[in-house]
Specification:
heterodimer, A: 128 residues, mainly alpha, two-stranded antiparallel sheet, 7 helices, 2 strands, globular, B: 203 residues, alpha+beta, Glutaredoxin, five-stranded mixed beta sheet, 37% helix, 23% strand
Chain lengths: 128, 203
């Protein structure tokens, strides 16, 4: 009985605490992504796109490749064409990218999928 | 006796309070005929995002808020620019205040590139001029505005530079600065702008 209570309290606390369960991913986001996309993923006017659920879903399959190699194509969202290229982040390791993608999934999607290292490695191997 | 002392200390306190409201003149002063002349930012002539020539005379009766950037800068620039945007929005209707951003990468930052950047940030000249021109001269301006620029192939974007936002009064004297990436410093900088505006209200 006691242990159930402890587990329940633990679950409650983790549920309500604002800290992300993906601290490493969050740190990588703040260090490598937030300059352009904003601390809360709000973007910067029409210069850099926000990270929204909708936009995230659209690009989620190619996300590991985008993070590593950047994006030169224009990105269209909410009737606005974002023309600035996203620079590559080749300094990030596969594990960094897994942590980052998991943080982004947790923060910006409703289904909050979990990505394993193998999932991400496979996507990275298939980059164009 | 005690009373006089109290009065005197109150008076000094009053005066010193008043003094601290005035922003200092920053930088190394020049000594001419035994008099200290505060550091001023140098003369320049560059082109803005709308192909217009801009020089120091355009800021003769204006308070300048300046920074250094380049449009493809992936590191500190966006954060500095989003803080500059806060200042731009706040003083949109204040005729005394102008913002100016000097490009450090004029090869890439053509007038067309600056125009696109300005449109994307939803800002307009002459309220906020983005300036380009001769690289040597642009880099030369940085030191006048307390910024450091080093070309560095290893740095993201090829240029390593500091992200200070500088407050320059109507006579070209540097009066305050903030690290443009530091929210707390920028908040204090906003108070410094108010202090400088008050100086001109009195006169």
């Amino acid at each position: 009985m006691k242990s159930i209570k402890v587990v329940l309290i633990f679950l409650l606390v983790t549920h309500f605490s604002c800290k992300s369960p993906y601290q490493k991913g969050e740190n990588i986001y703040l260090q490598h992504c937030s300059n352009c996309h904003g601390k809360e993923g709000e973007g910067l006017r029409k210069l850099y796109p926000p990270i929204t659920d909708e936009l995230y879903e659209k690009y989620s399959l190619q996300l590991p490749c985008m993070i590593r190699y950047g994006l030169n194509d224009n990105l269209v969202y909410n009737g606005n064409k974002y023309t600035a290229a996203m620079p590559p982040n080749e300094i990030l390791t596969d594990i960094d990218i897994v942590n980052l993608v998991n943080f982004l999934d947790w923060k910006y999607t409703t289904n909050k999928a979990f990505n394993s290292l193998a999932d991400v490695k496979k996507k990275l191997d298939d980059c164009n | 006796m005690r009373f006089t002392f109290l009065l005197f200390s109150l008076l000094t306190l009053c005066i010193s309070c008043k003094d601290s409201d005035k922003l200092p003149f920053l930088g190394v002063p020049e000594i001419v005929d035994g008099k200290e002349i505060p550091h001023t930012v140098g003369d320049f002539s560059f082109v803005n995002q709308d192909s217009q020539q801009v020089n120091q005379n355009d800021y003769q009766d204006q308070i300048q808020i300046a920074d250094f950037f380049f449009t493809t800068c992936p590191t500190i620039c966006p954060t500095v620019m989003s803080n500059m945007l806060k200042i731009y929005d706040k003083y949109q209707d204040n005729e005394d205040i102008r913002l100016v951003s000097f490009s450090l990468d004029p090869k890439k930052d053509t007038v067309a590139a600056l125009k696109q950047y300005a449109d994307n940030l939803e800002i307009s000249s002459p309220k906020w001029n983005l300036l380009t021109g001769e690289k040597k001269k642009l880099h030369g301006m940085a030191a006048d505005y307390f910024n450091i620029v080093v070309e560095d192939e290893e740095a993201p974007g090829g240029i390593n530079h500091s992200g200070k936002i500088i407050l320059v009064d109507k006579k070209g004297r540097v009066r305050a600065y903030a690290e443009g990436t530091d929210e707390n410093e920028v908040e204090k900088f906003m108070e410094d702008i108010e202090k400088l505006l008050k100086e001109y209200e009195v006169n």
